[in-house]
Automatic annotation (TrEMBL):
This is Protein-N(Pi)-phosphohistidine--sugar phosphotransferase. Residues 1-162 form the PTS EIIB type-4 domain. The keyword Cell division does not apply. Signal peptide: none annotated. Keywords: Cytoplasm, Kinase, Phosphotransferase system, Sugar transport, Transferase, Transport. Its EC number is 2.7.1.191. It comes from Vibrio scophthalmi.
Amino acid sequence: MANIVLARIDERLIHGQIRLQWGKHSGANTILVANDEIAEMEPLQAPFKASAGSDFAVIFRTIEQTIANLPKAGMDRKILLLCKNPTDFSRIVQGGIKLPEINIGNMHFHEGRVAVNKYINVDKHDMAAFNSLRDHGSVSTIQHMPESDKECIFEMTKDLQI
Protein backbone atom coordinates (compact mmCIF):
# COMPACT_ATOMS: atom_id res chain seq x y z
CA MET A 1 0.00 0.00 0.00
CA ALA A 2 1.11 3.53 -0.68
CA ASN A 3 2.73 5.72 1.93
CA ILE A 4 0.08 8.44 2.22
CA VAL A 5 1.46 11.01 4.65
CA LEU A 6 -1.49 13.40 4.37
CA ALA A 7 -4.96 13.26 2.80
CA ARG A 8 -6.36 16.79 2.48
CA ILE A 9 -9.45 18.45 1.07
CA ASP A 10 -8.67 21.83 -0.46
CA GLU A 11 -10.74 23.31 -3.27
CA ARG A 12 -7.72 25.34 -4.36
CA LEU A 13 -5.66 22.14 -4.72
CA ILE A 14 -1.97 23.09 -5.05
CA HIS A 15 -1.03 26.58 -3.89
CA GLY A 16 1.56 28.20 -1.64
CA GLN A 17 0.08 26.96 1.62
CA ILE A 18 0.14 23.36 0.36
CA ARG A 19 3.72 23.63 -0.81
CA LEU A 20 5.22 25.68 2.00
CA GLN A 21 3.19 24.51 4.98
CA TRP A 22 1.48 21.15 4.46
CA GLY A 23 4.01 19.63 2.10
CA LYS A 24 6.95 20.34 4.35
CA HIS A 25 5.04 19.52 7.55
CA SER A 26 3.94 16.14 6.21
CA GLY A 27 7.31 15.18 4.77
CA ALA A 28 5.72 14.52 1.37
CA ASN A 29 7.84 14.16 -1.73
CA THR A 30 4.86 13.63 -4.06
CA ILE A 31 1.59 15.49 -4.46
CA LEU A 32 -1.16 13.37 -5.97
CA VAL A 33 -4.15 15.40 -7.12
CA ALA A 34 -7.15 13.08 -7.41
CA ASN A 35 -9.70 14.94 -9.51
CA ASP A 36 -11.53 13.70 -12.60
CA GLU A 37 -11.76 17.08 -14.32
CA ILE A 38 -8.14 18.16 -13.93
CA ALA A 39 -6.75 14.69 -14.65
CA GLU A 40 -8.56 14.68 -18.00
CA MET A 41 -7.54 18.23 -19.02
CA GLU A 42 -3.77 18.54 -19.23
CA PRO A 43 -3.77 22.34 -19.86
CA LEU A 44 -5.30 22.82 -16.38
CA GLN A 45 -2.36 21.03 -14.76
CA ALA A 46 0.45 23.46 -15.61
CA PRO A 47 -0.44 26.16 -13.05
CA PHE A 48 -0.65 23.55 -10.29
CA LYS A 49 2.72 22.08 -11.23
CA ALA A 50 4.22 25.56 -11.18
CA SER A 51 2.73 26.22 -7.74
CA ALA A 52 4.37 23.07 -6.38
CA GLY A 53 7.82 24.21 -7.45
CA SER A 54 10.59 21.64 -7.68
CA ASP A 55 10.12 20.29 -4.16
CA PHE A 56 7.54 17.66 -5.16
CA ALA A 57 6.71 15.26 -7.91
CA VAL A 58 3.17 16.20 -8.99
CA ILE A 59 0.78 13.58 -10.35
CA PHE A 60 -2.78 14.04 -11.59
CA ARG A 61 -5.16 11.08 -11.59
CA THR A 62 -8.87 10.49 -11.93
CA ILE A 63 -10.53 8.96 -8.88
CA GLU A 64 -10.61 5.55 -10.59
CA GLN A 65 -6.93 5.81 -11.55
CA THR A 66 -6.13 6.78 -7.96
CA ILE A 67 -7.94 3.72 -6.61
CA ALA A 68 -6.20 1.46 -9.14
CA ASN A 69 -2.68 2.88 -8.77
CA LEU A 70 -2.26 3.82 -5.10
CA PRO A 71 -1.76 0.20 -3.99
CA LYS A 72 1.14 -0.05 -6.47
CA ALA A 73 3.04 3.00 -5.16
CA GLY A 74 6.32 2.27 -3.41
CA MET A 75 6.88 3.18 0.22
CA ASP A 76 9.64 5.62 -0.84
CA ARG A 77 6.92 7.80 -2.39
CA LYS A 78 5.54 9.91 0.48
CA ILE A 79 2.20 11.06 -0.89
CA LEU A 80 0.19 14.15 -0.05
CA LEU A 81 -3.19 13.14 -1.49
CA LEU A 82 -5.32 16.14 -2.48
CA CYS A 83 -8.99 16.21 -3.43
CA LYS A 84 -11.28 19.18 -3.99
CA ASN A 85 -14.15 17.75 -1.96
CA PRO A 86 -15.18 15.03 0.48
CA THR A 87 -17.18 13.18 -2.19
CA ASP A 88 -13.99 12.32 -4.08
CA PHE A 89 -12.38 11.03 -0.88
CA SER A 90 -15.53 9.02 -0.17
CA ARG A 91 -15.23 7.41 -3.60
CA ILE A 92 -11.58 6.60 -2.91
CA VAL A 93 -12.29 4.84 0.41
CA GLN A 94 -15.29 3.05 -1.10
CA GLY A 95 -12.82 1.80 -3.72
CA GLY A 96 -10.81 0.09 -1.00
CA ILE A 97 -8.14 2.66 -0.13
CA LYS A 98 -7.75 3.02 3.64
CA LEU A 99 -7.40 6.61 4.82
CA PRO A 100 -7.32 6.87 8.62
CA GLU A 101 -7.66 10.66 8.62
CA ILE A 102 -8.93 13.28 6.19
CA ASN A 103 -7.62 16.78 6.81
CA ILE A 104 -10.24 19.37 5.83
CA GLY A 105 -8.81 22.60 4.45
CA ASN A 106 -10.58 25.15 2.31
CA MET A 107 -14.13 24.47 1.16
CA HIS A 108 -15.45 27.73 -0.25
CA PHE A 109 -18.95 29.09 -0.03
CA HIS A 110 -21.23 28.08 -2.91
CA GLU A 111 -24.98 28.40 -3.20
CA GLY A 112 -26.61 26.01 -0.73
CA ARG A 113 -23.59 25.68 1.54
CA VAL A 114 -23.56 26.67 5.21
CA ALA A 115 -20.54 28.24 6.93
CA VAL A 116 -18.82 26.04 9.50
CA ASN A 117 -16.02 28.57 10.01
CA LYS A 118 -14.35 31.18 7.82
CA TYR A 119 -12.63 28.52 5.69
CA ILE A 120 -15.14 25.66 5.62
CA ASN A 121 -18.62 25.64 4.08
CA VAL A 122 -20.66 22.46 3.65
CA ASP A 123 -23.94 21.25 2.20
CA LYS A 124 -25.92 18.05 2.68
CA HIS A 125 -23.90 16.25 -0.04
CA ASP A 126 -20.64 17.12 1.71
CA MET A 127 -22.02 15.85 5.03
CA ALA A 128 -23.22 12.63 3.39
CA ALA A 129 -19.66 12.13 2.09
CA PHE A 130 -18.21 12.78 5.56
CA ASN A 131 -20.65 10.22 6.98
CA SER A 132 -19.53 7.72 4.35
CA LEU A 133 -15.90 8.39 5.22
CA ARG A 134 -16.67 7.81 8.90
CA ASP A 135 -18.48 4.57 8.01
CA HIS A 136 -15.28 3.43 6.23
CA GLY A 137 -13.07 4.20 9.24
CA SER A 138 -11.81 7.67 8.30
CA VAL A 139 -11.77 10.52 10.80
CA SER A 140 -12.44 13.93 9.18
CA THR A 141 -10.85 16.88 10.96
CA ILE A 142 -10.78 20.58 10.20
CA GLN A 143 -7.29 22.02 10.45
CA HIS A 144 -6.44 25.20 8.59
CA MET A 145 -2.67 25.18 9.23
CA PRO A 146 -0.34 22.49 10.63
CA GLU A 147 -0.02 24.37 13.91
CA SER A 148 -3.83 24.78 14.25
CA ASP A 149 -5.86 22.53 16.51
CA LYS A 150 -7.81 19.71 14.87
CA GLU A 151 -11.59 19.89 15.14
CA CYS A 152 -13.99 17.07 14.24
CA ILE A 153 -16.30 18.01 11.36
CA PHE A 154 -19.26 16.41 13.15
CA GLU A 155 -18.65 18.36 16.34
CA MET A 156 -18.34 21.59 14.35
CA THR A 157 -21.58 21.00 12.42
CA LYS A 158 -23.80 19.47 15.09
CA ASP A 159 -25.75 22.69 15.70
CA LEU A 160 -25.98 23.82 12.07
CA GLN A 161 -29.03 23.54 9.85
CA ILE A 162 -27.61 21.81 6.77
